[in-house]
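Re: beginner question about structure tokens

> Can someone show what the tokenized structure looks like for a real chain? I only ever see the sequence side.

Sure, here's an example I had lying around. Input first:
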Amino acid sequence: MIYYLAIASSLFGTTVKMLDTHGLALPQARLVVEKPLGNNGESSRAINAELAAVFDEQQIYRIDHYLGKETVQNLMALRFANVILSPYGTTIISIMFKLLLPRQSA
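And the corresponding structure tokens:
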């Protein structure tokens, strides 16, 4: 099970706590978060502490936002183009969270 959090980093802590509350933070689960984490060193350390309170370090993957975007788009192509993986792809469950963030002035 892979949880890919493509959301504002300020929501990472709340999200992983809810995964834990609902029994979804399993030992075999992996958590992928997009960098940057926070606005500065202090907020980054706070977010990492929130993640570590629920998931082990070996379960957490931090990736650059631009690298993650193409990877996620390629997952669908891999799922349907690969004859070996295609039968297993039908068991994928998708949960999407969409939120509108206010624009920040420059």
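Each token stands for a local structural state, so reading them left to right follows the chain. The chain has a mean pLDDT of 78.
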